[in-house]
Amino acid sequence: MSHRATLTPQMLQYAEKFDDRGDIRWLPYLMYFHAADHRSEVVNTDRLGFRMSHGPDGQVAAPGGPLPEGPVRLLAGSSTAFGIGAGSDRHTLPSALWSRHAPSVPWLNFAGRSHNSAQELLLFTLYRHLLPKVDEIVLFSGFNNLGLSRLPASVRGDHGAFFNCNDFYGQMEELRARHRKASGGFGRFGGRRQAAPEPADTAVPELAEQIDLASELTLRHLDSWRLLAEGMGAKLTFVLQPLATWVREEPAPQEKLIFEELDRISNFGEVYGDISAMSAREAYSKELQVGCERMGVRYLDLNPVIADAIGKDDWLFVDRIHFTDEGHDLVAGLLARQLGLS
């Protein structure tokens, strides 16, 4: 049996419905979101696909219901905020905050797995009307935009690339090709159709440009979050999410086994090698911090905070970006203390 299956058996349940290689639920506007009304020992979602969060006295809440009367706090972001890696809903960041580390106000899980900053913002604008009064919004994000900034300009467009975008554009081009073939080369009114497009640019931007692209996009969308939060009377914080290689150079023993196994079946090093370096995190964090200060949004880079709080053998990650149950609990506690949440 593999180290991953032995050490993190819960990941098998995420693979079925909550993985890019699994059964993706495609949606208009958002492109994709989690399976709705999903039930398992590991993951449970509401009627819309939001993950359930748990409170200190057995309460359960989600944006699609059940909802507390209010006020509430939101943890938004992508898969780390959603809780990929947690052994159950009770061990995600929103649940750890609500049940143990900052329980004075209920926390809702408002995250979307594999979302970029545009999708995170759109998810909030589409479902904000369901919420009671919101006191606090913590946007726990940052890595996906940086990872996606490596893709060529032809797929980044005006609002950034998204995961599975190559599949999307490839399928669209196949559809156009079938239409061209079926029409014999002529359009609806007899005019000759456009020829197939030239191959798209595939050049990968240099690291400095990737950081600039990701920072600009993240801050642009964060400014819209700021306007929405101000209108709701909610406090907004942007947290640069942790990455295993941004926290420490040498992984814990269990992490080392898992990472080596994952590297044999994926191309993480090839795809993310340069942006996973400590120096890349420092440059990216500096740009985000300056932008947040300029717009008056509280900013926190959790990576050095975690690095100062752990020992060399503390096992935090199930892969390079998602936490174990103990990792979720540690990070939730650090987050609550750093932000002064009760």
TrEMBL record:
This is Inducer of phenazine A. It comes from Streptomyces taklimakanensis. It comes from the Bacteria.
